[in-house]
Amino acid sequence: MNIRMTAIAGASALALAAGTAFGGAFSTNIPGVGTLYFGRDLSANPTQANPARVPDGMRTNADGARGQFESNIMNPLFESFEGATPGAYVNPFSNNPTLASSADIPIDFAPDNKAVVSGDFAVLAQPANTGPVLFPTMQPQGRYPSEGNNYLEVGAVNADNEDFTLSFFENDFTTPKGQQAFGFYGTDIGDVGNELEIELLDGAMMMIPVDTIPDGGSAFNASIIFWGIILDDGVAPIVSVRFVNSGGGTDIFGFDEFIIATPEQTMIPLPTTVGLGAAGLLGIAAIRRRRLA
Fold first, then answer.
1. Which end of the chain is more exposed for a tag (fewer CB within 10 A), N or C?
2. DSSP state of 250
3. pTM of the shown model
4. d(Cα 30, Cα 14) in Å, to the nearest integer?
5. Cβ of 76: how many Cβ atoms within 10 Å?
6. Rounded Cα–Cα distance for residues 88 and 28 (Å)
7. Angle between helices 284-292 and 60-70 (to 10 degrees)
8. What's the rounded Cα separation, in Å, for the pair 206 and 271?
C-alpha cells in the first residue's frame, strides 16, 4: 500500500476546511485508510505580542474530537513528556534562529509498548496556568502544554523545514510495534503560513498537512488542535509518525499528549463524515478522571 497526500486530499482538506476554518471539530472517513478526527479551539487573544492560551475546560472542539477518537479505543496509552528534562530555548526570531534540539527521548507507554522521539525538536516547559504564553524577552509566542508543564516544539526557519519522528517498538526498543490508532494535541499551528505534514509510515506513507485552510493567519496564534486517526481493518499498522514543519516561512509548532492504541485495543469506526459537537465531549471528563486515577 502506498498512499500519499494526493490520495486523501479531497476528503481531509474538505473536512478540515468545513470543520475548522474558524474553530470547530470534524471527523471524516478516508476510504481505504481510516477515520480522521480533528478539532481546533481559538485563543481569546491571538495577538502576536501577548497571546492567551486556550485553557483546559474551554477546549470544546479539540477535546470533543479527542473524546470521539477515544470512544473507539479500549484503555488508550498516553505520553505527556512530564518525565523529560526541558532544554534551553533559543528564540527563532532572534539573530540565532535555531531551536536547540533535545536528545532522543525513550517513551514507556506500557510494558510491551515503547517508543522513541528523534530528530529536530526541543522539550520545553511552560507553567500550567491559563495566563499569557510568554517567555522573558522572547516573543512572539503561542505554544504551550495541553497538560502538565512540558511539551515538544519543532521550528522551521525560512526555507529550512524541520521534522521529528515518533517510532514504536516492542519492549526491547528494537522490534517495531504496529499501532492502529494515533492522536496528539498541537498548539500554534498554522498562524504564520507554514504547514504541518504528518506522515504515517509502515510501507504505506500518508502525508497529511493538518493546516491548509486559507486565510487562517494570526487568528490561529496560540490555538490548540487535536488530531487523531484510527486505521481501517486491513491497513498496515503505524510503526512510526513523522512530523514536518514546512512551508518556507519561520514558524514553530507545539506538541503534547501523544495517544496510541494497538489493533487489539481498537474498535474500527463505521464509515461516516460528521461534525463533532457535544457528543464528543461526553467521554472527555471520564478520560481526564481516568488519567488522574
1. C
2. -
3. 0.81
4. 11
5. 22
6. 39
7. 80
8. 19
